[in-house]
Amino acid sequence: MNSLAKISEPPASGCCTPDVLSRGLFALAHPARIEILRYLSGVDYCCCKDVVCRLQLAQSTVSQHLKILLEAGLVRMSPQGQRSRYAVDSKALLALSEAVGGLLNACAARADENGREI
Amino acid sequence: MNSLAKISEPPASGCCTPDVLSRGLFALAHPARIEILRYLSGVDYCCCKDVVCRLQLAQSTVSQHLKILLEAGLVRMSPQGQRSRYAVDSKALLALSEAVGGLLNACAARADENGREI
DNA sequence: ATCGTTCATCGTCGATATACGATGAACAGA
DNA sequence: TCTGTTCATCGTATATCGACGATGAACGAT
Q1: Does B31 lie at the interface with A, CB-CB under 8 angstroms?
Q2: How would DSSP label each residue in A60-75?
Q3: Domain positions in chain A
Q4: Do B30 and A1 touch (CB under 8 A)?
Protein backbone atom coordinates (compact mmCIF):
# COMPACT_ATOMS: atom_id res chain seq x y z
CA MET A 1 0.00 0.00 0.00
CA ASN A 2 2.88 2.26 -0.66
CA SER A 3 5.35 3.52 -3.21
CA LEU A 4 5.81 1.21 -6.12
CA ALA A 5 8.34 0.96 -8.83
CA LYS A 6 7.41 1.79 -12.34
CA ILE A 7 7.58 -1.19 -14.56
CA SER A 8 7.57 -0.72 -18.28
CA GLU A 9 5.56 -3.80 -19.08
CA PRO A 10 2.05 -4.74 -20.02
CA PRO A 11 -0.02 -5.25 -16.87
CA ALA A 12 -0.25 -8.94 -17.65
CA SER A 13 -3.19 -11.19 -18.50
CA GLY A 14 -6.21 -8.95 -18.77
CA CYS A 15 -6.54 -8.02 -15.13
CA CYS A 16 -6.16 -5.04 -12.85
CA THR A 17 -3.08 -3.11 -11.97
CA PRO A 18 -1.10 -4.30 -8.99
CA ASP A 19 -2.39 -1.36 -6.98
CA VAL A 20 -6.05 -2.10 -7.59
CA LEU A 21 -5.50 -5.77 -6.97
CA SER A 22 -3.54 -5.29 -3.80
CA ARG A 23 -6.18 -2.96 -2.46
CA GLY A 24 -8.80 -5.64 -2.80
CA LEU A 25 -6.48 -8.29 -1.50
CA PHE A 26 -5.61 -6.24 1.52
CA ALA A 27 -9.26 -5.96 2.44
CA LEU A 28 -9.49 -9.72 2.25
CA ALA A 29 -6.26 -10.40 4.09
CA HIS A 30 -7.57 -10.51 7.62
CA PRO A 31 -9.23 -13.46 9.32
CA ALA A 32 -11.93 -11.33 10.84
CA ARG A 33 -12.83 -9.77 7.52
CA ILE A 34 -12.95 -13.16 5.84
CA GLU A 35 -15.32 -14.32 8.53
CA ILE A 36 -17.42 -11.22 8.09
CA LEU A 37 -17.67 -11.83 4.36
CA ARG A 38 -18.67 -15.43 4.92
CA TYR A 39 -21.25 -14.48 7.46
CA LEU A 40 -22.65 -11.68 5.35
CA SER A 41 -23.00 -13.94 2.36
CA GLY A 42 -25.03 -16.41 4.39
CA VAL A 43 -27.75 -14.04 5.43
CA ASP A 44 -30.09 -11.76 3.56
CA TYR A 45 -28.55 -8.79 5.24
CA CYS A 46 -27.35 -7.89 8.64
CA CYS A 47 -26.41 -4.99 10.81
CA CYS A 48 -23.21 -4.22 12.63
CA LYS A 49 -24.47 -5.62 15.88
CA ASP A 50 -25.13 -8.99 14.29
CA VAL A 51 -21.52 -9.20 13.28
CA VAL A 52 -20.40 -8.11 16.72
CA CYS A 53 -22.35 -11.02 18.17
CA ARG A 54 -20.66 -13.44 15.77
CA LEU A 55 -17.11 -12.26 16.24
CA GLN A 56 -15.57 -11.76 19.63
CA LEU A 57 -14.65 -8.17 18.88
CA ALA A 58 -15.67 -4.77 20.11
CA GLN A 59 -18.32 -2.93 18.18
CA SER A 60 -15.91 -0.24 17.14
CA THR A 61 -13.49 -2.82 15.80
CA VAL A 62 -16.18 -4.50 13.76
CA SER A 63 -17.26 -1.14 12.44
CA GLN A 64 -13.70 -0.53 11.29
CA HIS A 65 -13.49 -3.86 9.51
CA LEU A 66 -16.81 -3.22 7.82
CA LYS A 67 -15.55 0.15 6.70
CA ILE A 68 -12.49 -1.42 5.15
CA LEU A 69 -14.60 -3.95 3.29
CA LEU A 70 -16.91 -1.15 2.26
CA GLU A 71 -14.13 1.05 0.93
CA ALA A 72 -12.71 -1.88 -0.96
CA GLY A 73 -16.11 -2.25 -2.61
CA LEU A 74 -16.62 -5.79 -1.44
CA VAL A 75 -19.58 -4.90 0.71
CA ARG A 76 -22.42 -2.44 0.38
CA MET A 77 -24.32 -0.61 3.02
CA SER A 78 -27.53 1.34 3.37
CA PRO A 79 -28.81 3.05 6.49
CA GLN A 80 -31.96 1.41 7.79
CA GLY A 81 -33.44 3.29 10.69
CA GLN A 82 -31.04 3.09 13.52
CA ARG A 83 -29.30 0.14 11.94
CA SER A 84 -26.98 -0.19 9.00
CA ARG A 85 -27.82 -2.81 6.47
CA TYR A 86 -24.74 -4.57 5.22
CA ALA A 87 -24.59 -7.01 2.37
CA VAL A 88 -21.84 -8.41 0.18
CA ASP A 89 -21.44 -7.11 -3.34
CA SER A 90 -21.39 -10.39 -5.19
CA LYS A 91 -20.31 -8.81 -8.45
CA ALA A 92 -17.31 -7.27 -6.75
CA LEU A 93 -16.44 -10.58 -5.17
CA LEU A 94 -16.57 -12.30 -8.53
CA ALA A 95 -14.48 -9.58 -10.11
CA LEU A 96 -11.85 -9.85 -7.43
CA SER A 97 -11.94 -13.62 -7.69
CA GLU A 98 -11.30 -13.40 -11.39
CA ALA A 99 -8.54 -10.88 -10.98
CA VAL A 100 -6.75 -12.91 -8.34
CA GLY A 101 -7.29 -16.13 -10.21
CA GLY A 102 -6.09 -14.50 -13.39
CA LEU A 103 -2.94 -13.28 -11.75
CA LEU A 104 -2.09 -16.47 -9.92
CA ASN A 105 -3.00 -18.85 -12.70
CA ALA A 106 -1.11 -16.80 -15.24
CA CYS A 107 1.95 -16.73 -13.02
CA ALA A 108 1.73 -20.46 -12.38
CA ALA A 109 1.26 -21.20 -16.06
CA ARG A 110 4.15 -19.03 -17.13
CA ALA A 111 6.32 -20.56 -14.47
CA ASP A 112 5.44 -24.04 -15.69
CA GLU A 113 6.28 -23.08 -19.24
CA ASN A 114 9.70 -21.98 -18.20
CA GLY A 115 9.67 -25.24 -16.41
CA ARG A 116 13.09 -25.20 -14.94
CA GLU A 117 12.87 -26.49 -11.40
CA ILE A 118 14.84 -24.79 -8.71
CA MET B 1 -2.88 -11.18 11.45
CA ASN B 2 -4.12 -10.99 14.97
CA SER B 3 -6.64 -12.30 17.45
CA LEU B 4 -9.69 -13.77 15.88
CA ALA B 5 -13.07 -14.70 17.13
CA LYS B 6 -14.00 -18.31 17.38
CA ILE B 7 -16.81 -19.19 15.09
CA SER B 8 -18.68 -22.40 15.60
CA GLU B 9 -19.32 -23.12 11.96
CA PRO B 10 -17.94 -25.31 9.24
CA PRO B 11 -15.02 -23.59 7.53
CA ALA B 12 -17.08 -23.27 4.38
CA SER B 13 -16.60 -24.71 0.91
CA GLY B 14 -13.68 -27.08 1.14
CA CYS B 15 -10.91 -24.57 1.53
CA CYS B 16 -8.46 -23.37 4.11
CA THR B 17 -9.12 -21.71 7.40
CA PRO B 18 -9.34 -17.95 7.44
CA ASP B 19 -5.94 -17.80 9.06
CA VAL B 20 -4.17 -19.81 6.40
CA LEU B 21 -5.97 -17.96 3.68
CA SER B 22 -5.28 -14.55 5.08
CA ARG B 23 -1.62 -15.39 5.47
CA GLY B 24 -1.33 -16.12 1.79
CA LEU B 25 -3.43 -13.14 0.88
CA PHE B 26 -1.34 -10.84 2.95
CA ALA B 27 1.77 -11.91 1.11
CA LEU B 28 0.02 -11.06 -2.10
CA ALA B 29 -1.44 -7.79 -0.88
CA HIS B 30 1.37 -5.49 -1.84
CA PRO B 31 2.01 -4.02 -5.28
CA ALA B 32 5.72 -4.68 -5.10
CA ARG B 33 5.20 -8.33 -4.22
CA ILE B 34 2.69 -8.77 -7.01
CA GLU B 35 5.24 -7.35 -9.41
CA ILE B 36 7.90 -9.63 -8.03
CA LEU B 37 5.66 -12.64 -8.54
CA ARG B 38 4.90 -11.62 -12.09
CA TYR B 39 8.52 -11.03 -12.84
CA LEU B 40 9.63 -14.29 -11.26
CA SER B 41 7.07 -16.24 -13.21
CA GLY B 42 8.39 -14.83 -16.47
CA VAL B 43 11.95 -15.98 -16.10
CA ASP B 44 13.56 -19.31 -15.45
CA TYR B 45 14.90 -18.04 -12.18
CA CYS B 46 16.43 -14.92 -10.89
CA CYS B 47 18.45 -13.54 -8.06
CA CYS B 48 17.72 -10.72 -5.68
CA LYS B 49 19.72 -8.23 -7.66
CA ASP B 50 17.63 -8.85 -10.76
CA VAL B 51 14.53 -7.88 -8.84
CA VAL B 52 16.25 -4.83 -7.43
CA CYS B 53 16.96 -3.70 -10.97
CA ARG B 54 13.31 -4.15 -11.92
CA LEU B 55 11.76 -2.41 -8.96
CA GLN B 56 12.84 0.98 -7.78
CA LEU B 57 13.55 -0.25 -4.28
CA ALA B 58 16.59 -0.73 -2.10
CA GLN B 59 18.18 -4.14 -2.04
CA SER B 60 17.28 -4.66 1.58
CA THR B 61 13.66 -3.84 0.88
CA VAL B 62 13.49 -6.31 -1.97
CA SER B 63 15.10 -8.92 0.21
CA GLN B 64 12.38 -8.36 2.78
CA HIS B 65 9.63 -8.72 0.21
CA LEU B 66 11.19 -11.90 -1.08
CA LYS B 67 11.35 -13.23 2.44
CA ILE B 68 7.66 -12.56 2.93
CA LEU B 69 6.81 -14.37 -0.29
CA LEU B 70 9.11 -17.16 0.76
CA GLU B 71 7.57 -17.58 4.19
CA ALA B 72 4.13 -17.58 2.65
CA GLY B 73 5.29 -20.47 0.48
CA LEU B 74 4.58 -18.71 -2.78
CA VAL B 75 8.21 -18.63 -3.77
CA ARG B 76 11.11 -21.00 -3.34
CA MET B 77 14.76 -20.27 -3.00
CA SER B 78 18.06 -22.09 -3.21
CA PRO B 79 21.50 -20.64 -2.65
CA GLN B 80 23.55 -20.61 -5.81
CA GLY B 81 27.09 -19.50 -5.24
CA GLN B 82 27.00 -15.94 -4.10
CA ARG B 83 23.52 -15.52 -5.51
CA SER B 84 20.14 -16.72 -4.37
CA ARG B 85 17.99 -18.45 -6.90
CA TYR B 86 14.39 -17.48 -6.57
CA ALA B 87 11.48 -19.03 -8.39
CA VAL B 88 7.74 -19.12 -7.94
CA ASP B 89 6.11 -22.21 -6.51
CA SER B 90 3.45 -22.74 -9.11
CA LYS B 91 1.66 -25.38 -7.08
CA ALA B 92 1.35 -23.00 -4.19
CA LEU B 93 0.05 -20.28 -6.49
CA LEU B 94 -2.59 -22.61 -7.87
CA ALA B 95 -3.58 -23.72 -4.39
CA LEU B 96 -3.96 -20.15 -3.23
CA SER B 97 -5.85 -19.30 -6.37
CA GLU B 98 -8.27 -22.12 -5.71
CA ALA B 99 -8.69 -21.20 -2.08
CA VAL B 100 -9.38 -17.57 -2.84
CA GLY B 101 -11.61 -18.41 -5.74
CA GLY B 102 -13.44 -20.95 -3.63
CA LEU B 103 -14.03 -18.45 -0.90
CA LEU B 104 -15.11 -15.58 -3.11
CA ASN B 105 -17.21 -17.59 -5.48
CA ALA B 106 -18.93 -19.39 -2.65
CA CYS B 107 -19.69 -16.11 -0.94
CA ALA B 108 -20.97 -14.59 -4.16
CA ALA B 109 -23.10 -17.62 -4.91
CA ARG B 110 -24.59 -17.75 -1.45
CA ALA B 111 -25.28 -14.06 -1.59
CA ASP B 112 -27.05 -14.45 -4.90
CA GLU B 113 -29.17 -17.28 -3.51
CA ASN B 114 -30.33 -15.10 -0.71
CA GLY B 115 -30.87 -12.67 -3.47
CA ARG B 116 -32.33 -9.83 -1.57
CA GLU B 117 -30.77 -6.62 -2.86
CA ILE B 118 -29.81 -3.98 -0.41
C1' DA C 1 -39.59 14.67 25.83
C1' DT C 2 -37.09 10.92 27.46
C1' DC C 3 -34.84 6.55 27.33
C1' DG C 4 -32.56 2.77 25.18
C1' DT C 5 -30.43 0.92 21.02
C1' DT C 6 -27.42 1.08 17.19
C1' DC C 7 -23.68 2.84 14.93
C1' DA C 8 -19.66 5.75 13.25
C1' DT C 9 -15.97 8.27 14.74
C1' DC C 10 -12.25 9.90 17.80
C1' DG C 11 -8.32 9.23 20.67
C1' DT C 12 -5.07 6.07 22.26
C1' DC C 13 -1.89 2.31 22.60
C1' DG C 14 0.98 -1.48 21.18
C1' DA C 15 2.41 -4.20 17.31
C1' DT C 16 3.69 -4.54 12.72
C1' DA C 17 4.77 -3.01 7.83
C1' DT C 18 7.63 -0.64 4.87
C1' DA C 19 11.38 1.77 3.64
C1' DC C 20 16.29 2.87 4.02
C1' DG C 21 21.51 2.66 4.99
C1' DA C 22 25.11 0.10 7.13
C1' DT C 23 27.27 -4.07 8.11
C1' DG C 24 29.15 -8.57 7.75
C1' DA C 25 29.08 -13.25 5.69
C1' DA C 26 29.75 -16.02 1.65
C1' DC C 27 31.61 -16.62 -2.58
C1' DA C 28 33.99 -16.03 -7.37
C1' DG C 29 37.78 -14.49 -9.64
C1' DA C 30 42.28 -12.24 -10.11
C1' DT D 1 45.38 -13.52 -0.40
C1' DC D 2 42.84 -9.69 -1.87
C1' DT D 3 38.96 -7.54 -4.20
C1' DG D 4 34.45 -7.00 -5.75
C1' DT D 5 29.77 -8.88 -5.87
C1' DT D 6 25.71 -10.60 -3.87
C1' DC D 7 22.78 -11.17 -0.25
C1' DA D 8 20.60 -11.44 4.48
C1' DT D 9 20.22 -9.19 8.57
C1' DC D 10 20.35 -5.36 11.89
C1' DG D 11 19.02 -0.97 13.40
C1' DT D 12 16.12 2.84 12.73
C1' DA D 13 12.41 5.94 11.38
C1' DT D 14 7.78 6.59 9.91
C1' DA D 15 3.26 5.08 8.85
C1' DT D 16 -0.42 2.13 9.33
C1' DC D 17 -3.02 -1.66 11.45
C1' DG D 18 -5.86 -3.61 14.88
C1' DA D 19 -7.74 -3.40 19.10
C1' DC D 20 -10.22 -0.96 22.72
C1' DG D 21 -13.23 2.48 25.40
C1' DA D 22 -15.63 6.75 25.20
C1' DT D 23 -18.54 9.82 22.93
C1' DG D 24 -22.15 11.77 20.33
C1' DA D 25 -25.52 11.39 16.51
C1' DA D 26 -29.60 9.16 14.74
C1' DC D 27 -33.51 6.74 15.47
C1' DG D 28 -37.54 3.91 17.58
C1' DA D 29 -40.39 3.29 21.33
C1' DT D 30 -42.63 4.72 25.42
Answers
A1: yes
A2: HHHHHHHHHHHHTTSE
A3: 18-112
A4: yes
List, for residues A43-65, the tens digit of each pLDDT value.
988 999 999 999 999 999 999 99
**Nucleotide showing the shortest C1' distance to residue B46 CA:** D6
CB nearest A101 (choices: B37, B38, B97): B97
d(CA B98, CA A97): 9
**Number of inter-chain CB pairs under 8 A, A vs B:** 191
CB B13 within 8 A of CB A65: no
Handedness of CA A22, A23, A24, A26 (dihedral sign): positive
CB A15 within 8 A of CB A21: yes
Residues B87-94 have a mean pLDDT of 95
Whether any strand C atom is under 7 angstroms from the Cβ of B79: the reply reads yes
Q: What is the CATH number of domain A18-112?
A: 1.10.10.10
